[in-house]
Specification:
about 450 residues; alpha+beta; four-stranded antiparallel sheet
């Protein structure tokens, strides 16, 4: 390879994986796009966080964030004796109470989910240099993160494909410079869709048309009311007008006929002018049907059920609980798995992973049923012998009681292979018959004291 080919190979060797943002200079038009100043008059800006101005997008992000923030993340350990919860681990306080000095756990997870729902969420892991333990977790603005992949083997690996030797790092724009972070220093939570497994796709790139439709519908209604419910029309004039005269007439006419202050008022036209209304009714345009379809498309892309958006047209008191369960299994469970696997792999040391430590959200708050249903489930578990009373009390935040750690079962239950033997006279040849013989005693010792039950007093027979 020639020396002059090295810069070109370097440019091709590194793959830049970023869902948001690129490096631009002051003369680049893309800078206006990043600042949201490239929107032409009449266009709708739904780029990046501007999409939250659309009420459906805002509601979906809020529902996803709130659903995650109310679930406490706990630490468990799995070994030969089973699974046990560990509350004394150093990470327990960070994940459940306060990941960093400025955020509660609820606020931290809300931030992470808001960014993840748009494609990617990042958090910097701060370690204790002496012990290697995690001391804080800091969210990073996803728009300031760029993922770099050495998939051409320029930094050590000689295999120009993805392998165990492939280098990867995160470049963070701090405002005053660039900071390089290794994968072990970053928690990277990807969105629901990822094409290469390295970064999540930008949700708005694929929902732009639907989000713009929703925003346009909102602006249409807003302008319709601002104009005082006045319809558009065509003004005809017999004669000719120059441009200044047209502007003066149009300004004067709109000041009389448009706006909330002019609603239901009569407008005057000079002699020679004729006004012809031009309008398309909302029914003819199927405005409500199209708006409802747009809402459903956006909600479906975010994994939010319609009853969570207060659309109860297809919901009843009987199926709301089932719809909530479907939301957990279809939408929430994959999201929770993404967080749990990333936190388990990045936050624990290798020796802790080897002995079975892992993180998991407590979903009881999400699937918590009514009081009657919960108590009936506890009764079934306790009577079935697989749930201890204290375990049920712990789920209800009650203190344990003495003897509550024992398992109880119905004494009438017998093994399946012994079913029906209690109705056989004398039992079988091996088990029950032997027990009957032992109960009858030895006939050779029948002269011992005892009452045979026939009224003879149990004396010895001659």
């Amino acid at each position: 390879m020639k020396l002059r080919d090295i810069p070109q190979r370097l440019r091709k060797g590194f793959s830049k994986r970023s869902s948001m943002g690129v490096e631009v200079n002051l003369q680049d038009r893309r800078l206006l796009e990043m600042l949201g100043l490239d929107v032409k008059p009449g266009e709708i800006n739904v780029k990046d966080w501007n999409a939250l101005k659309v009420d459906t997008v805002y509601a979906c992000v809020k529902i996803l964030s709130d659903s995650l923030s109310k679930l406490p993340m706990k630490i468990y350990r799995e070994d030969e004796d089973g699974i046990s919860q560990t509350a004394q681990h150093s990470l327990a306080r960070l994940l459940k109470l306060r990941p960093n000095p400025f955020m509660s756990a609820a606020d931290f997870w809300k931030t992470m989910e808001a960014h993840r729902s748009f494609g990617n969420a990042y958090a910097n892991i701060e370690f204790d240099r002496k012990t290697g333990e995690v001391v804080a977790i800091w969210p990073i603005d996803s728009k300031k993160v760029t993922v770099w992949i050495d998939d051409a083997g320029l930094l050590g690996s000689k295999v120009p494909i993805m392998s165990n030797k492939t280098r990867m790092w995160y470049e963070v724009d701090t405002g005053t410079g660039k900071r390089k972070l290794l994968p072990d220093e970053v928690l990277h939570f990807k969105g629901s869709v990822t094409i290469d497994g390295l970064v999540g796709v930008n949700t708005l790139d694929y929902l732009r048309c639907s989000v713009e439709n929703a925003s346009a519908a909102t602006q249409f209604i807003n302008n319709f009311y601002k104009q005082g419910l006045q319809v558009k029309g065509l003004i005809q004039y017999t004669g000719s007008l120059d441009e200044p005269a047209k502007k003066v007439f149009l300004d004067n006419f709109e000041s009389m006929a448009s706006g909330l202050e002019n609603s239901h008022r009569t407008a005057l036209l000079p002699l020679g002018y004729t006004f012809t209304p031009m309008s398309l009714s909302m029914a003819d345009a199927q405005f409500l049907q199209n708006t409802e379809l747009t809402i459903r498309q956006i909600a479906n892309a975010f994994g939010v059920k319609m009853h969570q958006l207060n659309d109860l047209s297809k919901a009843t008191y009987a199926n709301v609980e089932q719809q909530q369960l479907a939301y957990y299994t279809e939408s929430q469970q994959p999201i929770l798995t993404t967080y749990e696997q990333e936190c388990t792999y990045k936050l624990f040391m290798d020796r802790e992973l080897d002995i079975g430590f892992y993180t998991k959200f407590n979903i009881d708050a999400l699937l918590r049923a009514d009081l009657k249903t919960r108590y009936e489930a506890y009764r079934t578990g306790i009577q079935g012998g697989f749930l201890a009373p204290n375990e049920a009390r712990r789920r209800e935040d009650m203190a344990p009681l003495p003897g509550g750690d024992r398992l109880y079962a119905n004494g009438n239950f017998i093994p399946l292979e012994l079913a029906g033997q209690q109705y056989m006279k004398g039992g079988d040849e091996a088990g029950p018959k032997k027990n009957d013989e032992s109960d009858q005693g030895d006939e050779s010792n029948s002269n011992t004291n005892g009452d045979p039950g026939d009224g003879s007093g149990g004396g010895a027979s001659e």
